Amino acid sequence: MAHSEVRKGKISSKGMRNALKLFSYIKPYWVEYAFGLFFLLGSSLANLAFPKLLGDLVNSGTEGEIAEAMTRIGVMLIALLLIQSVFSYFRTVLFFNVTEKSLADLRQSTYNHLIKLPMSFFEKHRVGELNSRISADIALLQETMTSTLSQFVRQIIIISGGITLLVITSLKLTLFMLAVIPAIVLLAVVFGRYIRRLSKKVQGEIAKSNTIVEETLQGIQSVKSYTNEFFEMLRYRKKTLEIAGIGMKTGRYRGAFTAFIILGMFGAMVAVIWKGAILLAEGEINSGQLFSFVIYTGFIAGTIGGLAGVYARLQRFIGATEDIFGIFNEDNEKLKELDSTMVKKNRLRGNIEFRDLSFAYPSRPGERVLSNISFSIVPEQTVALVGVSGSGKTTITSLIMRLYDNYTGEILFDGKSSRDFDLEILRSQISIVPQDIFLFGGTVGENISYGRPGASEEEIYKAAVQANAMEFIENFPSGMDTIVGERGTQISGGQRQRIAIARAILKDPRILILDEATSSLDSESEMLVQEALEKLMAGRTSIIIAHRFSTVREVDNILVMDRGRLVEKGTHDELMKITNGKYRTLSKLQYID
Ligand SMILES: Nc1ncnc2c1ncn2[C@@H]1O[C@H](COP(=O)(O)OP(=O)(O)OP(=O)(O)O)[C@@H](O)[C@H]1O
Ligand SMILES: [Mg+2]
Predict the structure, then answer these.
(1) Are residues 276 and 357 part of one domain?
(2) Is residue 561 part of a domain?
């Protein structure tokens, strides 16, 4: 069950305030909701009248003959049942309508917020956990709004209305009943609270085990290539056994709880009927009254029994709203939707400058990944970033994209601080062909058009040709409509790369960043791609990251990174002249083999 993962919140004023936020989502549909409430109240009240009429029916029977009253009450009872069923139908339909519409809004705004959160957020939260938590939370809200809330309202009406009617019938018997039932309820609450704590633990463990499943299935290729299936099976087995253990313990307590409730409730029933029989014998009440009294008591007892469950679900409901609205408390990147005039007005010339920049990833604040980096790139130049693995090349490109904001020093575009740009204006003019290319599960064509949604078929085709991707696309039986598989797993690495290049070309950026763009190509395709890239780089600022130095010889400027520092800069020829220079050393190493 999905909602078993949802944590419980405190029914406190703070918790309630979060829950109330939900009502801003219901507000647009309040008319339907009000009608729903009306039908709920109506059906609950009809429910309440039921035992009273039954009692009257019994009484009319004791008068010895088939009285007119009997028929009348019978008809009333049937009418009551009709009203109740019609009302229940409309109540259910209306509540479902309101719930589905307002939760669709909530889902949408949660997603809207989530997708705009900065990278630092996603590094602190596992995506699978986040996703399953949100869907569990929303499933729980759904259940609460469609059934738990109305159950709760009905319970309150039955308990308060029922007791009022009982007092009218017989104060003595009511007092007797109230002396017995609340004691049992009190015990039940204490017992129930302990059980709840246990099930909470189960929920936590289930979430952990789900993470194992999700991660290993996502990374199935790594699992298989290391033949770690048995290791993972064992890891999962340990968790499932643990969950089963706690779950069974919960079961034992829950069993005892149920037994206790049955014993307590039926015991109380017996006591009440016994007391009622005495009052009947003494002539204080008549048999119809006793009859409806017993049914009311059953109603009330059953309701009180269900109250604990509803209470627990309401707690989870509070927990779910806290979780969901907690996401809204995270600051997002405040992106605006772009219109083309905005970009035209803020067109970048393509000058990039880093001034004494230092940076640590938010997930590892202690580890400085870039230290005091300063460089300047002239518009429309091509610059290469080189350096051993882990020296900070990709990090520099992430900062140019401003995926992270927590750097010190300055990044300037055309002399203006990166922080003073609207993010969407900045990012819309930068294309990255990243190191690990991510394709969406759709078709080749869709993946290329991701560079500029709304591009025409012709433009997509042109971009594919420029990226030298057309030759393999044409060989696919369904061409542009070929499905690339989940995350692009059904095509080769080099093909993926050229699709990513086509995507970047389609975006027509001012600044182009190629992170190892030609690494998974054979020499012939590399030449083709290189050729395409050269055309692509003309007229824009380009930054290329390459491990193979053969590809960087011709560039205007080379930046050499070493352990987060910029150690050398210059052209190939200049850098080769530095004796014991980093570039020269690295370059020599490459030509040995
Ligand atoms: N998201 C991240 N969170 C924390 N640390 C990171 C993150 N990404 C990279 N790092 C660390 O930052 C350092 C620089 O990484 P970066 O990816 O910039 O290196 P690189 O020069 O691109 O290496 P490569 O040539 O292997 O691609 C490394 O020590 C790496 O472990
Ligand atoms: Mg890298």
Answers:
(1) no
(2) yes
Confidence of residue 541 (pLDDT cuts 50, 70, 90): very high
Q: What is the pLDDT of residues 132-146, one digit of tens each?
A: 888 888 888 888 888
Comparing 139 with 535, the larger pLDDT belongs to 139
CA–centroid distance for 365 within its chain: 26
Q: Is the CB–ligand 1 distance for residue 393 below 6 Å?
A: yes
Q: Does the C-beta of 361 come closer than 6 Å to ligand 1?
A: yes
Within 10 Å of residue 423's Cβ, how many Cβ atoms?
A: 19
Residue 435: inside a domain: no
Decide if pLDDT at 498 tops 70: yes
Ligand 1 atom 6, closest CA: 361
- Cα of 560 to ligand 2 centre, how many Å? 13
On whether both 294 and 179 belong to a single domain, the answer is yes
Provide the CATH number for the domain around residue 193. 1.20.1560.10
Per-residue burial over 506-539, b = 16 or more CB atoms within 10 Å of its CB, e = otherwise: bbbbbbbbbbbbbbbbeeebbebbbebbeebbee
* Closest ligand, as measured to the CA of 561: 1
CA 305 to ligand 1 centroid distance, Å = 57
| Number of the ligand 1 atom closest to the C-alpha atom of 123 | 1
CB distance 272 to 177 below 8 Å: yes
Residues 11 and 142 grouped into a single domain: yes
Q: Which domain does 454 fall in, by range?
A: 442-502
Q: How far apart are CA 299 and CA 437, in angstroms?
A: 62
What's the gap in Å between 444 CA and the centre of ligand 1? 29
pLDDT tens-digit map of 399-424? 999 999 899 999 999 999 999 988 88
Q: Are residues 322 and 348 in the same domain?
A: no
Q: What average pLDDT does the chain have? A: 85
Rg of the chain (C-alpha set): 35
| DSSP secondary structure, 464-531, as one string | HHHTT-HHHHHHSTTGGG-B--GGGTTS-HHHHHHHHHHHHHHH--SEEEEESTTTTS-HHHHHHHHH
**Dist. CA 129 → ligand 2 center (Å):** 27
Residue 219 sits in the same domain as residue 234: yes
pLDDT value, residue 181: 74
Does any domain span residue 336? Answer: no
Does 282 fall in a domain? yes
Q: Is the pLDDT of residue 7 over 70?
A: yes
Query: Residue of the nearest CA to atom 9 in ligand 1?
Result: 395
Q: Answer whether 369 contacts ligand 1 (Cβ < 6 A).
A: yes
Q: Are 281 and 184 found together in one domain?
A: yes
Q: Report the separation in Å between the CA atom of 468 and the middle of ligand 1, taken as the mean of its atom positions.
A: 30
293 and 411 assigned to the same domain:
no
Q: Is the CB of 390 under 6 A from ligand 1?
A: yes
Atom of ligand 1 nearest to the CA of 388: 25
- Count of the separate structural domains present in the chain: 3
